[in-house]
Amino acid sequence: MMTRLFVLFCFSCMLMTERVYSQADPSADIIQIFKKGASGDLGKYFNEMVDLNIPGFKDSYSKTQAARIIKDFFTSRPLGEVLVNKEGNSTDGSKFIMGSLSAGGKKFSFYFMLRKSKEEYRIFQLHIQSE
After folding, report:
1. pLDDT (tens digit, 9 = 90+) per residue, 10-44?
2. Distance of alpha carbon 71 from alpha carbon 41, whole angstroms
3. Answer CATH for 25-130 from 3.90.1150.10, 2.60.40.1230, 3.10.450.50, 1.25.40.10
4. Radius of gyration of the chain from Cα atoms?
């Protein structure tokens, strides 16, 4: 009986740990993916619909479309340096990441906005604009 309770307790702890981990702020992961130029990996953090404002594209796009657009952006403009200038929280509970980058020999400013969706933070806005 004691063994069963211990196993049940351990299993419950694992479930709670997984739940807390899934609610964690992915900002650090997103920054690392962005700095590596692994734009295809950003898609796993996109909300179902993403507001994009990047050169040539300014609209709301599905997660799949947005991932393809970002991948194409960086394929045509090899990524250089990425600097994060500011991270923080908005009054509505959203998180933001702001910075600058060089790509294809040009300088850009960028920002991400993340919001909780189904208990996980997702990118719902991504802007990359020429400086």
Report:
1. 445 554 444 444 457 888 888 888 787 766 788 89
2. 9
3. 3.10.450.50
4. 18
